[in-house]
UniProtKB/TrEMBL annotation:
This is Probable membrane transporter protein. It comes from the Bacteria. It comes from Primorskyibacter flagellatus. The keyword Acyltransferase does not apply. It is found in: Cell membrane. One of its GO terms (cellular component) is plasma membrane. InterPro entries: TM_pro_TauE-like (IPR002781), TSUP (IPR052017). The chain crosses the membrane at residues 7-36, 42-63, 75-98, 104-122, 129-146, 152-170, 182-201, 207-224, 231-250. The keyword Iron does not apply. Belongs to the 4-toluene sulfonate uptake permease (TSUP) (TC 2.A.102) family. It is a multi-pass membrane protein. Keywords: Cell membrane, Membrane, Transmembrane, Transmembrane helix, Transport.
Length: 252
């Protein structure tokens, strides 16, 4: 790798770590950076997943005091769902062309961003109608689908997880961010293991990015918790989602 390549990987990795900690979507920075440096698209997808993993762990650690149970499922159950979904998604990546799924990514991001934006309003409407948090079956299904997506294509996973949590009745944004980071780490662990066994990881690039995403993830987790205006934080998350949606529509 050239010096310029290393600088690009470090900068994009740190920015992705911060973004993953605050809102999710860091893969949309690291994936194009890897492709730009000559990594083939499918390998770039796999390498970006590995590179994001330490950042997820670091930001989850930064949020450790905020991770709390919401909804009807225990945290242990949610983690088992994340493991199973990540495994299924990684296997699907091995047997289906990436192009089929990449065409859906902008639409999935758009829907997830809108759902996250209207989540608080929708939850209040459901509560006024006498409907509380989603039941076990719906919660398991929702987390399972999103975890499968994360195992297949890591991009936008954080925003989709936050949107899903909002729709099934979660309301504590700090707790949601902490659980989102923990789930992202679990999903990425199993997915990265499968992709590594398949020989799709470009390890020098992954290691450089991993160090940068770790630093960015810890900094992002620390900074996000000190934003006292949660409405502003939510608006920022929605803005990130809309920007990424536009970028990926433009790339098609």
């Amino acid at each position: 790798m050239t010096f310029e390549t290393i600088i690009l990987l470090v900068v994009s990795g740190f920015a992705a770590g911060v973004l993953n900690a605050v809102a999710g979507g860091g893969t949309f920075i690291t994936f194009p950076a890897l492709v730009f440096t000559g990594v083939p698209p499918i390998a770039a997808n796999a390498t970006a997943t590995v590179a994001a993993l330490p950042g997820y762990i670091a930001s989850a650690y930064a949020y450790r005091s905020n991770i709390a149970k919401e909804g009807v499922l225990k945290i242990r159950t949610i983690m088992l769902i994340a493991l199973a979904g990540g495994l299924v998604g990684a296997v699907l990546l091995m047997i289906t062309p990436a192009e089929l799924f990449s065409g859906l990514v902008p639409w999935l991001l758009l829907v997830a961003t809108v759902l996250f934006a209207v989540g608080p309003w929708l939850v209040k409407r459901l509560q006024k109608a006498g409907i509380g948090a989603a039941g076990p079956a719906l919660s398991i299904f929702a987390f399972g689908v999103v975890s499968t997506y994360g195992g297949y294509f890591n991009g936008g996973l954080g925003i989709i997880l936050l949107a899903t949590m909002g729709l099934i009745g979660f309301t504590n944004l700090d707790g949601m961010n902490g659980l989102k980071n923990l789930m992202s780490a679990v999903i990425s662990v199993i997915s990265a293991g499968v992709l590594a066994l398949a020989g799709l990881i470009w390890w020098p690039q992954a290691l450089v990015m991993a160090v940068a995403t770790t630093a960015g993830g810890f900094f992002g987790g620390w900074a996000a918790q000190r934003i006292t205006n949660k409405a502003l934080l939510r608006a920022g998350i929605v803005m990130v989602g809309l920007i990424m949606t536009v970028i990926f529509f433009m790339r098609q």
